[in-house]
Amino acid sequence: MAFWAFFSIFPLRFIFVTLLGYVLPPSLQGDVLRSAARFFPLLSTDSIGRLSGQWWTLLIGILNALWSGS
Predict the structure, then answer these.
(1) Which of 25, 38, 43, 61 satisfies CB 3.0 to 4.6 Å to 14 for a cystine?
(2) Is the pTM of this model over 0.85?
(3) DSSP state of 41
């Protein structure tokens, strides 16, 4: 059950983060990265860079969501 939960939630997060890269202006992207870094102590905003919306990451997320739903 945990296996299927992971494979159903992971693609949705992947798609959501990719869409944030497309939709959010750069100033808000920095705010999102800083708030995400607070939840993960080893995650630094310097190592992440920026949110970027790439077409191939969106495609991988959608295909993974379709595969895990079947």
Answers:
(1) 61
(2) no
(3) T
Distance from C-alpha of 56 to C-alpha of 60, rounded to nearest angstrom: 6
For the range 52-58, what are the long-range contacts, defined as Cβ-Cβ under 8 Å and sequence gap of 24 or more?
A: 52/21, 53/18, 53/19, 53/20, 53/21, 53/22, 53/23, 54/18, 54/21, 57/14, 57/18, 58/15, 58/18, 58/19
Encode burial over 8-39: b for 16+ CB neighbours within 10 A, e otherwise.
eeebeebbebbebbeeeeeeebeeebeeebee
Phi, psi of 50 (to 5 degrees): -150, 165
User: For 20-57, what is each residue's pLDDT tens digit?
Assistant: 888 888 888 878 877 777 777 776 666 666 667 677 77
Tell me the C-alpha distance between 36 and 32, whole Å. 6
